[in-house]
Design goal:
Helix content is 40%, strand content 16%. The protein is α/β, with parallel strands linked by helices and 159 residues long. Helix 5 (116-125) links the parallel strand 5 (109-113) and strand 6. The chain is globular.
Amino acid sequence: MLGPDRFAPRLHDVPHEELEAAGIRGLIIDLDNTLLGFRQTELEREHLEWVARARERGFRIAMLSNNFSERVNALAAQLNVSCFPNALKPLPFGFLRAKRCLRLRRREIAVVGDQLFTDVLGGKLCGLYTILTEPIELKDFPITRVFRFFERLMLRNRR
């Protein structure tokens, strides 16, 4: 249940072709430390380009974040994607709202995020394909640092 289906160093390292070959047509993407570093306000060029190429290829994309509305909405607008802030991940509610927005079947959606106990667990609870990335930077919210400790124990020698 806690094992991601795939690992990737960063979001922009996930090949669009690989997703298409796996039947993935929709993406639910985490924000903090997946799309941009902790408390950063500018999206990295590589991630902007990756999302733009994904949209050009026909992927439907939603951003799902435990962060607050104002920040999430502003960044989602930059990417021109739907967003669901205050998601309370790993609870399934936000994932299911994003799934309904994408109008795709579970097997057609991948969740991409940097945390095992929020992004991967929440995606797995909803029957979605999961991709775990490395965090963009080591800074995190205090509670996230606790979860990172347990992640390292669980994922030892698996990345």
